[in-house]
Amino acid sequence: MAFWEGVIAGLGVAVPVGAIALLIVDVGLRRGFQAGFMAGAGAASVDFFYAGVAALTGEVLTLALSPYKDVLRLISALLLFSIGGFGLWRVRKISTTGGAKQILVQGKLRVYAQFLGLTLINPLTIVYFSALILSREVSYMVIFGERVAFVVGAGLASLSWQTLLAALGATARRNLSTRFQLFASLLGNMVMIGFGLRILLPLVL
């Protein structure tokens, strides 16, 4: 039972379309399934880690992070601006050099590390898992095996979803024209900047 609750929790945090999801699709679109899978694995690793931390510490770490949540959100917004801005520059560069499909070649481990870092600075993930853990009965909280099952279920569910996103991007790469791929990447990077603005505006106002 705890495993399937973890699966539902993992999908709950992974499925909503956000900046990381768009980035995974974009990596699959530009570089193929393997790179997209490594990007998704980086994001899923953080979901797995935060689910484990939440299961072990409950509200302790959530309370510890609370004073820094605005700083973390500001960093998230600035990173999204940087990624979106660089993505727009890359699309313009590709469009003016005859439609080359790739300018920057990165190792797959580097892609994994980048997405690990991007997802790690999101404090909402651990708040989400902590809230789920704390909403359970006391008997659930003290049974270690059920906590492990919950964490494994959450991690596998997140990885499965991120892999699907990578596959969608890679499929589009194989079947869509270069012009459409450029348009999709352009749109995705503009949405990325929009996510950054959505995070930043409440902090400023």
Outline the structure in words:
- With 205 residues, the chain is an all-alpha fold.
- The protein has one domain (2-204).
- 85% of the residues lie in helices and 0% in strands.
- It has 10 helices and no strands.
- α2 (19-31) packs across α9, α2 (19-31) runs antiparallel to α10 and α4 (59-65) packs antiparallel against α7 (123-134).
- The chain is globular, with a radius of gyration of 18 Å.
State the domain count: 1
Beta-strand content estimate = under 5%
Distance between the termini: 44 Å
Biggest sheet descriptor: none
Alpha-beta content class: mainly alpha
Global outline: globular
SSE string, helices as H and strands as E: HHHHHHHHHH
Radius of gyration using CA atoms only: 18 Å
Overall helicity: over 70%
The total of beta strands comes to: 0
Q: What's the mean pLDDT score?
A: 75
Low-confidence stretches: 99-105, 137-141
List the helices and strands and how they pair.
Layout: H1 2-14, H2 19-31, H3 33-57, H4 59-65, H5 69-95, H6 108-120, H7 123-134, H8 138-142, H9 144-175, H10 178-204
Helix pairs in contact: 1-9, 2-3, 2-9, 2-10, 3-6, 3-7, 3-9, 4-7, 5-10
Main attributes?
single chain; 205 residues; mainly alpha; 10 helices
Summarize the structure.
This protein has 10 helices and no strands. It is mainly alpha-helical and 205 residues long.
